[in-house]
Amino acid sequence: DTETLLKYADTAMYQAKQGGRDAFQFVTSAMNAEVSHRRDLETALRQAVKNGEFVLHYQPKVQLAGGHVVGLEALLRWDRPGYGLVPPSEFVYALEECGLIVEVGRWVIAAACEQIRDWIRRGVNPVQVSVNVSPRQFLKGDLQGDVLLALDTYEIPAHLLELELTETLLTTGTDFTITALRNLKAVGVQISIDDFGTGYSSLAYLRRFPIDKLKIDLSFIHEITHSSDAAAIALAIIQMGHSLNLEVIAEGVETASQLAYLRRHQCDQIQGYYFSPPLAAPRLEQLLLAGTRLPAPERESAVPPAPLPPADDVAQAGDATY
Ligand code: C2E
Ligand code: MG
Ligand code: MG
Q1: Quick check: 49 and 35 in contact, CB under 8 A?
Q2: Residues enclosing ligand 1, CB less than 6 A?
Q3: pLDDT tens, position by position, 67-85
Q4: The pTM is what?
């Protein structure tokens, strides 16, 4: 019937567009299953926004000079009824596709600021918290307004908030994006480039955009000890960052030998399971209060990372199970 035919044609067209321009595509049953999965996911996500089912976990960033925690990255999880904690790799793309990322992104910024205020009020040493920002929040939302409102509502100093941007935003960014970022930077908000080295890197944007920090993508870090190419890329990023007066942080540090390489080459900060996975706020707070530090270099090979608080509720791939 006409209705089904049109629906199938639409599905195929969507798939063809996903694969780039000038393509054609036959409908397959797998495609229909994929479409209905996406529809169910979207419905569940709309419900999740209404019911407030999102939570933030926080992963420490450690300064290599001194070994102390200097920042946290807020990472989104979906506490989906009947599924447990769902990682962002399973739903952030869907939030982006259906536009809900603007609303959820606004919530992330507000929730991170509220958490910072809470820690300040309760005397937990305030550290900078970064949030991930999707390009859509600039293009379809009002990121500048969202950030300023949250800083104002929770009365926190702007330098305690950092935005992690992707290279995609910088390469597609308009003058409007640059102005918004400059305005935020002018009030003190910090700006970093996430997953650096994996996008369509145009080095020109490092001069055009008001950037404070580069985050070396974890795919390079995972290979630095056994691929000379990855090691050379990581080193080049550190040196280039420093020449441009930017701080450099390595993501996804899991082993003592990765850490040793980064120390040797004067990387500023590290983030990764070696020190701590992302943790729910109460456990992260315990870590901050305990003043947990990275062991000094000479002890690294002999001493495992400092112990973290014991297990309670959440167990999830990648996140703390203790
Ligand atoms: P990202 O911003 O690059 O975050 C780092 C990811 O690496 C996190 O995954 C973190 O758990 C993981 N990770 C940290 N240390 C290690 C390690 O030592 N080894 C390995 N293998 N992985 C490590 P997560 O939390 O699953 O987040 C994945 C991505 O989802 C993030 O990558 C970010 O792009 C996106 N994301 C997370 N939260 C948000 C959000 O609030 N908004 C938006 N737009 N995207 C988000
Ligand atoms: Mg990030
Ligand atoms: Mg990253």
Answers
A1: no
A2: 59, 75-76, 87-89, 92, 101, 105, 108, 131-132, 134, 164, 194-195, 218, 251-254, 272-273, 278, 318
A3: 999 999 999 999 999 999 9
A4: 0.89
